[in-house]
Amino acid sequence: MPVRKTRRPQRRPQPPPPPELRELGIRARKSLGQHFLTDREVLERIALAAPLSSTQAVLEIGPGLGFLTEELEARGAHITAVEIDDELCAHLQRRFEGRRVRVVCADALEAPPAELLARGGMAPPFGAAGNLPYYITGLLLRRFLEAETRPDWMLFMVQREVAESIVSSPPRMSLLGVSVRFYAEPELLFPVPPSAFYPPPAVDSAVVRLRTHKNAPVDVTDEKAFFDVVRAGFSAPRKQLHNALSRGIWTEPGAATTILERAGIDPMRRAQTLDLAEWGRLHRAFEAQRAAVAG
Ligand code: SAM
């Protein structure tokens, strides 16, 4: 009988806990996505990627123990740092007293970014940075991108898979990719392994930089209607567009094919193959059809 070899589970390299945690007598709180970035080289790389020559005011989300805050401050940034954890917040207020950092104890999702910045006594233009707690990444990106006053740039550490989706492009564009590119130009800067954090997260991470557009890259009459069409297209990503659209959005029976043809898009293509300009044409063709039916 063949002997079955049992594989030992691979041990991930475990970095030592930052001494501040012991000094403060606290533990990393999983429920708040607390994974502290302790690798100095990675911290420096992130701070160097911040376009601080264009905006010195920075809104930092989730400063934790203040490691990234410190690097950004060393490069000349004026920082409003928003931290939800009361104990960490009190620590940060002591640590950065009298420096170019204002610490705001709040949930970063409770107010638009410019309002959070104002609570730190700062005003636009500004950039945003942070090693984001992964459980709020999607919602926070959306709030920041759709805000009336947007940051000029965002430099965020996110889950690697999310980073790849943010920078995706045709023929593998994701819904998140379309949404981000509507507001900003995204770049994936570099991956970061779990061993750079304490405690190490279960997933790989990556740093992305988004530079927000000054002018919309596509001509859109109604943003909500534009995203209704995009979401409908991605509602059945494996289906051809004429099918996905007929299921996902109101049209006259059979009209999706005609609308796609009017927009100059082959109805048999799939959502992930369209670029932003094509989504813009499709949105305008839908609006024209709606107007024709209504009028
Ligand atoms: N920036 C630190 C670093 O790189 O070591 C900590 C990053 S840790 C991944 C995420 C931080 O965000 C934690 O300090 C956590 O308490 C904080 N946080 C979690 N949810 C938050 C929220 N809704 N608003 C503000 N901060 C939040």
Question: How does the SSE layout of this entry go?
Answer:
Elements: H1 19-24, E1 36-37, H2 40-48, E2 57-61, H3 67-74, E3 78-83, H4 86-95, E4 101-105, H5 113-119, E5 127-131, H6 137-146, E6 153-159, H7 160-166, H8 175-183, E7 184-192, E8 197-198, E9 205-212, H9 223-234, H10 241-248, H11 255-262, H12 276-294
Parallel strand pairs: 2-3, 2-5, 3-4, 5-6
Antiparallel strand pairs: 1-8, 6-9, 7-9
Helix pairs in contact: 2-3, 9-10, 9-12, 10-11
The structure holds S-adenosylmethionine.
S-adenosylmethionine binds at residues 32-37, 61-65, 67-68, 82-85, 88, 107-109, 131, 133, 136.
Distance N terminus to C terminus? 79 Å
Helix share bin: 25-40%
Topology order in helix (H) and strand (E) letters: HEHEHEHEHEHEHHEEEHHHH
By CATH's scheme, which homologous superfamily of the largest domain applies? Vaccinia Virus protein VP39
pLDDT under 50 segments (min length 5)?
A: none
Query: How does the major sheet shape up?
Result: 7 strands, mixed
Strand content: 15-25%
Please give the CATH class of the largest domain.
Alpha Beta
Q: What are the bound molecules? A: S-adenosylmethionine
